[in-house]
Polar amino acid ABC transporter inner membrane subunit
Amino acid sequence: MKRQFGKWLLLVGIFIFGILGLARPASAASDTSLARVKAKGTLVMGTSPNYPPYEFQINQHGQSKIVGMDVEIGKQIAKDLGVKLVIKKLSFDSLLPALTTGKVDMILSGMSPTPARRKNVDFTDIYYTEGESILINKTDGAKYKTKANLAGQKVAAETGTLQYNLIKQQMPNAQLTGMSSAANLILALKTHKVAAVVKGTASATAYAKNDPSLMAINGHFKTSSAQAGNAIALKKGSPSLKNAINRSLTKIKKHHWIEQRYLKTAGKYLKVNTADTSMWHYRGYFLKGLQYTLLIAVVGIIGGSLLGLLLALLRFSTIAPLRWLATAYVEFVRGTPLMVQIMFVYFGIGIIVDVSALNAGMIAIVLNSGAYLSEIIRGGIQSVDSGQTEAAASLGLSKSATMRYVVLPQTLRIIWPSLGNQFINLIKDTSMVSIIGVTELIYQLGIVQADTYRGVAPIGIAMVIYFVICWLLTRLLSYYERRINRGQQQFN
C-alpha cells in the first residue's frame, strides 16, 4: 500500500510541475503581446490600491473607485493603444505571480525594477524617480532625525519591496520587520509596534500630510541606477508591448504630466478620503465585504460537505485505487496551507483555465474544507455501532440502502457538534482569499485603513461583523442539534 500511496504522491508532483512548466516565457520571435492586447480590446493593469498617491481607493458618492498617479498613467497608455483600461486589485505579493501567469498584462503599482525582479519579468523605462523617506511618529521627531538614530529599533517596510531591501542593506543595526500591506505598516507605527516605516517619498509625504500624528524625514538611502525609480513590469518576452508603453511614457515625461497633472489629481482625491473618515461613511465597503464573505462561506459549507461525504465514502470503498486516491487527496490537502492552495488554484490552475479571483477562492475553500470534513464524516461513520449494519443486513437492506437510511442519519447526530466547529472555522478562513484580490471583509478592511488613515476602528468593525456571523451560525446549529436529539429520543 505504501508503494501505491507513493505513486499517487508522485502523480500529484508531476501535475504540479507540469502546470508550472506551462508558465515559461514566450520567445521574442513569437511575441504577440501587443497584438493580443489590441485584439481583446483591454489592457489589464495589476495594482495594489493601498499606496497613496500612486494608487488607492476613494469612497465618492457611495461608490468605490481606484485612483492615483499610476491609474492616470495607465489610462493614458490604454488611450494611446486604443484599448480600454481594466484594473485588477491584488495584494502586492500577488502581483508578480499574476503577471507571469497571464492574469494581468502589466503591473503598474509603484514598483521598482530591482535586479531580482528583472530575472523574472521585463520592465519598461523609468517613469518616475523619487527618494526614500522614513515615517515616524511626530512625538519621536527629536529622537529620530536620521536613519542612524534608529539603530537597535524596529524599522518596517512592505515585504518584497525596494524599501525592504534598503533597510536590510543600509540599516544593518536596525531590526527589520516586514509586513504585507501599507495599512498594516501605518497601524504598527501608530501603535508603536515599530519605531519607523520606510516608504517612497511621495507616499510618505501623503501619509504625513493627512495624519497629524506622523512626520516624514529624509532617509538619505543610496540606490543604484538600475533600481532607482519606478517602472512598469511586463511578462518576459513582450518587446512589442514594452516598446508601445515606452512611447507613451516618453510622451508623459516630455509634457511633465506626472508633476503637473497626475500628482495634483491624486492630491485632490486624497482630500476626498480625509473629508469624512467615519466608519459609517464607509459602511458600503463593509457591506460589500460581508456579502462576499457570506457567499464564499455558504459555497464552502455546501460544496465542502458534499465533497467531504464523497471522500469519506471512497475511504470505505472496496476498489483500492479509489480508496488510495481519496487518502492521498486528504493527506495532501491537510498537509499544505490554505493560503498556498488558494494561490495555486488562482495562479496555477488558472494557466490552463481562466478562473476569476472569486471563483478561485471558492474552489480552494471547497477543496480544503472537503478534506477536513471527510475525516469528521469518516470518524462518525466508524462510530456507528456495527450491530446497526448487521440488523439492516438481516432485514435484507443492500449496502447502499444501509448506508443511506441507517448509518448516515446516525452519523449526522454524532458529528453535528464537530461539523458546527468546522463551519465556524470555515467562515473565518474566508479571510485568506483576500490575498488574490477577492473583496471580502478583510480585503475591505485594508482598503478602509488605507483610505482613512485609521488603523484600529476598521479592525473593530470587522471583528464585530465576524462575531455576529459566527454567533448567529452557532445559534442555528444549536437549534438543529436539539431537533436531531429530540427526534432520536422519540425514535428510541
